[in-house]
Design goal:
The protein has one domain (about 100-335): MetI-like fold, CATH 1.10.3720.10. The protein contains 15 helices and 4 strands. It has helices at about 1-15, 25-30, 35-65, 85-90, 95-125, 135-145, 150-160, 165-170, 195-225, 225-235, 240-250, 255-270, 270-275, 285-295, 300-335, and strands spanning about 70, 80, 185-190, 195. The protein has a two-stranded antiparallel sheet with strand order 1-2. Helix 10 (about 225-235) runs antiparallel to helix 11 (about 240-250) and helix 12 (about 255-270) runs antiparallel to helix 15.
Length: about 325
Amino acid sequence: MELSRGVDSDIQDSLKSYPAAPANKRSRWFSQFDGRDKWIALLMIGIPTLLHVALVWFPTVSSILLSFTNWNGIRFSSMEWVGLKNYQQIFGAFQRNTYQALLNNTVLMLFLFAGPTALGILLAYLLDKNIRGTRIYQAVFFTPVVLSLAVVGFIWKSVIYSTDNGLATQLFGGGKSVDWLGNQSFLIPIGDYGISHNFAAILVAIAWRHTGYIMVLYLAGLKAVDPSLREAALLDGSSEWQTFKNVIFPSLKPVNVVIVVITVIEALRAFDIIYVLNTPRKTEVLSILTTNNLLGEGGGNVGRGSAYATILFILCFGFVIWYVTNHYRNTQEGADS
């Protein structure tokens, strides 16, 4: 007994020699700073947080609240609470415009995956081979990304899709004038809706810019792949396609996650190019309907425009939360196994 008491006494004395553990993570983190440094740390965290809340979340929440009102955007006294009336109108009286815009957004998203993304991967893979003049090719393919979306739209409207003298008219017009952006007939009809000829023309303009963006992201990812993995696969007798499909592409999973999220968000919030080329009808997307209700067609209806913006926010935010949550869960399960 005396021996055990002596041991316990020694353990307690040794524990007293160590500093007490912080009460929580916050105090442990904050204790790293002294005096003036604490205020600097608070300012470095507080100012960006305040700006983020003021410039992002405050307008977002305000837009959601305004979607339940009828307001002309001028006097606050004229604001009237109408509940779900704006949403009932969107999916009722204006359902044709709404469903056509949702269809266009969906088609744009699928097109970006099937077209520019696939082509961007191919270009990145070829340029990763260090072919002759690879830096020149990179500059050429990446140049559209440097240009603003509005400038890209004006280029395609004036240079490529000009009715009489555009490059597309000279190459595919057969000597006749072609109204690339004015043909509202459905190229692919889907019931009462469809993909119009002019929207298909806009998709090509969007692909011209988006391909270079995807190429750069995948090219950066390919540079980080361990060359020994490729060499080992080739030594085992794998073909070039088998090596890419089974070895290289799976190792690009972090890049793939970024590409998927960026592409979906780009498809949902697409605005600039479509707005510049949006002289005719049947090319609207949700962002165009939002702008038209706030400023353009039907201008002054802040409530309905905010309702369109809220739907767009739910689609973007919902997808990001769903995808990131599932990806994190799969990563955790893979690490646990």
